[in-house]
Design goal:
The protein contains three helices and four strands; from the N terminus they run E-E-H-E-E-H-H. With 131 residues, the chain is of the alpha+beta class.
C-alpha cells in the first residue's frame, strides 16, 4: 500500500511530492518511478529532501513518510519542508520575522495530514493533486 502525491504550494509556486509507504525505503521507490534520484533514508520514519533536476531546471521538495508517522514527526518534517521552500525562494526568517514560516508550516501540516488520512482510508494512490 503506497501513495504518491504532487502538490503546488500556493504563493511560492513550488512543487512538492509526498510519498507514503510502509517504510521510507519503499516510499523512495515510489518516487523513483517518476524521478530517478538517490535518497538514503537510513531507516527513518520520515524524511524531507530537495530534489534537483539540473537538466530540466526543475526542483521538487519531497516528503517521505511511513504509514505509521505520528503528528509530532509530521510537524517536525513540515518545519524542514517550509525552511527548504522559503530558503529556495529567498525568504529569510528570523525571530522577529517568522510569520511566513509559521503560516507555511500550518498549511503544509494541514495538507499532508489530509493526504495521510486519505491514504489510510483508501490505500494506494498516485494522484497528482494541485491544492
Amino acid at each position: 500500500m503506497d501513495s504518491y502525491y504532487e502538490l503546488t504550494v500556493p504563493i511560492y509556486e513550488q512543487k512538492m511530492i509526498v510519498s507514503i509507504a510502509a517504510t521510507c525505503k519503499e516510499a523512495v521507490e515510489v518516487i523513483n518511478k517518476t524521478h530517478n534520484v538517490e535518497i538514503d533514508v537510513k531507516g527513518a520514519r520520515a524524511y524531507t529532501v530537495r530534489i534537483d533536476h539540473d537538466v530540466q531546471e526543475k526542483y521538487y521538495f519531497a516528503m517521505i513518510l511511513t504509514t505509521k508517522v505520528t503528528g509530532d514527526t509530521l510537524a517536525h518534517e513540515c518545519v524542514h519542508m517550509a525552511n527548504n521552500i522559503l530558503e529556495f525562494v529567498g525568504v529569510k526568517t528570523t525571530y522577529k520575522n517568522d510569520e511566513a514560516l509559521a503560516y507555511l508550516v500550518s498549511y503544509l501540516f494541514e495538507q499532508i495530514e489530509t493526504l495521510l488520512k486519505e491514504h489510510k482510508k483508501n490505500g494506494k494512490s498516485t494522484s497528482k493533486n494541485n491544492t
